[in-house]
Each structure stands twice: as C-alpha cells, then as structure tokens.
C-alpha cells in the first residue's frame, strides 16, 4: 500500500452515545473530514454529534439480525462483517477503533476475512473503561490483550491509562499518548449564553455543576455531600447534567440533607458548551478517570475545576492554578476548595484566566488532530 497520498480513507468505530470516547471519536472524524480525509463511521447508530450533513463523512449502520438460536445477539460478528464490507467497497486505508473490545476485536476478524486483498491498518485508542473495568474481567482479559497486540498502532488518552494498560495486561505493543482535546472556539465564554443562566438561578446564586453518566465510579453521593456543605455557607445551586443508575440515590441523599430544592437534575444534554457558560465551578469527585473530558471542556470555558486525584485529571488540572485536586472521598476538603473559589473574586478570576490559557495552549482540537494525522502516517509508513 502506498503512503504518498496526503488524504486518507479512514473508518472510525466508536460507541455513538454521550460518553467521552464517542464525543472524541466523532469530533476527530469531523475535523479530519475538514482536512480532506474521507471518513466512514461504522457503528450501530448515528453518533449523536453527527446530526447534520458533513462533507467527506459517511455513516454505515451495523444491523444485528435477530436469530432465534442466539440468546444474545452477536454484535461483534455483525460489526466485523460490516467492517469487511466497507473496507472492500471503499478501499479504506485504516480503521481507527475507539475501545479495544469489541471494536478492535471485530476489526481483526474483518482483516482476517479480507486476507491479502486489502491490507488495512488498525489503530486502537484506549479510553479507560475498556481497560480499567471491562478488560479486567477474567473472561475478557485475554481477548483484550490480544486485540491490543494485534493492532498496528495503539494510543491512550493519558499517561495514567497507558501505565495502567502496561501494568494490567503486560502488553509489549508501544502505546502513544495522545490526550483528549477540546474545540476551544466552541467551549469559551460567550455573551449570547447569558439567558441560559437566568433559567437556572435567580442571579444571586453561584452555580456548581457536575457532568457525568452517573455511574458509581462518579461518586454522586460525594457531589451532594460537598454541595450541602457549600450551600450551608453561601448561596449556591447544584446543576447535575447526565443520567445513570446513581441519579435516584443522589436525589434521595439531597432530600435527606435538606438541599433537594437547590439541586437541578437536567438529565442528558447535548449543549454542554451552553451549560458550562452558566457554571461557576465544575465538581468532579470521581473514584477513577482515565482523562476527564468534561474537566477539559470546563477549563476551556474558563470554569475552574474541583476534582480528585484519580488518574487523568492530574494530567489536565494544574493544581492551585486553574483548579484543586483532593483525595478521593475527601468531601470536607473539596467543599473548602469550592468555597475558597466562590467567595474570593480575585482568586476566582485568576483561576478562570489560567484555565482558559491552559486548555488553549495544550489541548486544542487543531493541534491534537495533527498529532493523530502524524500517527496515522507513521503507522502506514512503518507497515508499507
């Protein structure tokens, strides 16, 4: 396969839902298409950030047949067949898989089906859950390791995740760290979003925001406990964005602590840039995070962050400059940090400026997209 052409035909497979991996994969695909590459999304539903038409972008739906013999439908095999068909029809140069399993597994099957007819290259990006949760299940550990090793190139979104992968799986495949990114022209302070804030507060209250899929690892009880301590000393509103299994228990705790009337559960939302323009602080007390995309989006918007030392955020938040990091579960310290920022205007403004500068300088989508393009080219040249 020649590598002299500058524009590539790239297949992208991700989960098309609200999670950070799907957001990154979709935004990367859109940016690559703007650079002239031909992008083919291969997944079971249209990615939610791909609603409108984009030049150079195609969508291929994976349809899972309902065979009575299968108690659970074999999505991995259906995905492999669709990948095989798209590679053959469009002559893809590479597949970029977001998550080792099942996506990299399906891609390997598709490549085996193709044989020598089309030597497509496989790039796997590790995002976290595929390594820290699913991949550690004994029934999945060997197939996760195999899928990583069979990839032509592997990236991880943080040094923390890279190190976790090497430690847990003992893989010999080199892993390139390419961090998550943010479109700093979208996530920034904008005057036209002022009206959004007025729908959430009477104008005298500070807004503390939490954004997540509300799984246990996000520690929603800590969010509520931190807020209750803050609300006892200053006028504040807690806005929770997202949905998941911990939403109901979190609301019950808010009622128990007497702050339910100051908590707004918005559910899953698409306009995160608008909502972050309403926020004074982002509170993310997770047990573990491989990166923390919402943290980066907040910093880009000039919103300081109070989070935990749980992996990825330690590589994104500058401690004592654009946010504060505490030990997991230390709700007392997190509450003190929130109050420090909400009650000291000069300190807050310094943190807000630094947050924006840090995001623009180190995590802008334009620079990170270029790093992916360079990585693609290095894999193609190495494999030619």
Can you characterise this structure?
The chain has 384 residues and is α/β, with parallel strands linked by helices. The protein folds into two domains: 9-181 and 364-383, 3-Layer(aba) Sandwich (Rossmann fold); 191-362, Glycogen Phosphorylase B (Rossmann fold, 3-Layer(aba) Sandwich), CATH 3.40.50. It has 14 helices and 13 strands. Helix 9 (247-256) links the parallel strand 9 (236-241) and strand 10 (263-267). Helix 2 (75-90) crosses helix 3 (100-114) and helix 12 packs across helix 13 (345-362). The N and C termini lie close together (6 Å).
Summarize the structure.
By secondary structure, the chain is of the alpha/beta class. Helix content is 42%, strand content 16%.
By secondary-structure content and strand pairing, the structural class works out as: alpha/beta
Quote the beta fraction.
15-25%
Q: In one word, what is the shape? A: elongated
Instruction: List the uncertain runs.
Output: none
Order of helices and strands: EHEEHEHEHHEHEHEHEHEHEHEEHHH
Beginning-to-end CA distance, first to last residue? 6 Å
Question: How many domains, in number, for the residues?
Answer: 2
CATH architecture of the largest domain: 3-Layer(aba) Sandwich
Q: Determine the CATH superfamily of the largest domain.
A: Glycogen Phosphorylase B
The count of β-strands is: 13
In CATH's first tier, which class of the largest domain applies? Answer: Alpha Beta
The tally of helices reads: 14
Give the mean pLDDT.
91
């Amino acid at each position: 396969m020649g590598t002299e052409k500058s524009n590539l035909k790239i297949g992208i497979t991700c989960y098309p839902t609200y999670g950070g991996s799907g957001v990154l994969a979709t935004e990367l695909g859109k940016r690559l298409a703007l650079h002239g590459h031909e992008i083919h999304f291969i997944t079971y539903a249209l990615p939610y950030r791909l609603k409108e038409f984009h030049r150079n972008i195609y969508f291929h739906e994976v349809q899972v047949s309902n065979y009575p013999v299968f108690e659970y439908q074999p999505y991995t095999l259906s995905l492999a067949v669709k990948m095989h068909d798209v590679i053959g029809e469009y002559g893809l140069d590479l597949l970029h898989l977001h998550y080792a399993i099942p996506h990299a597994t399906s891609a390997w099957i598709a490549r085996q089906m193709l044989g020598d007819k089309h030597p497509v290259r496989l790039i796997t990006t590790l995002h976290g859950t595929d390594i820290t949760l699913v991949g550690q299940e004994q029934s999945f550990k060997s197939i996760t390791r195999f899928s990583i090793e069979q990839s032509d190139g592997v990236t991880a979104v943080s040094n923390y995740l890279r190190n976790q992968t090497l430690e847990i799986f003992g893989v010999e495949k080199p892993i390139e760290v390419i961090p998550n990114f943010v479109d700093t022209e979208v996530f920034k302070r904008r005057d036209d979003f002022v009206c959004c804030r007025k729908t959430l507060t009477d104008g005298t209250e500070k807004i503390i925001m939490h954004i997540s899929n509300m799984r246990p690892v996000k520690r929603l009880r800590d969010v509520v406990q931190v807020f209750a301590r803050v609300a006892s000393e200053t006028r504040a509103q807690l806005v929770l964005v997202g949905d998941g299994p911990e939403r109901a228990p979190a609301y019950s705790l808010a009622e128990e602590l007497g702050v339910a009337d100051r908590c707004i559960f918005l559910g899953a939302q698409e306009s995160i840039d608008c909502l972050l323009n309403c926020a004074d602080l982002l509170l993310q007390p997770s047990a573990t995070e491989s990166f923390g995309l919402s943290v980066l989006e907040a910093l880009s918007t000039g919103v300081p962050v109070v989070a935990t030392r749980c992996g990825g955020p330690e590589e994104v938040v500058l401690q004592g400059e654009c946010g504060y990091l505490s030990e997991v579960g230390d709700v007392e310290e997190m509450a003190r940090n929130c109050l420090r920022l909400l009650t000291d205007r000069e300190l807050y403004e310094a943190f807000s400026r630094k947050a924006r500068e840090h995001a623009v300088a180190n995590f802008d989508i334009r620079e990170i997209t270029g790093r992916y393009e360079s990585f693609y080219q290095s894999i193609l040249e190495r494999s030619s």
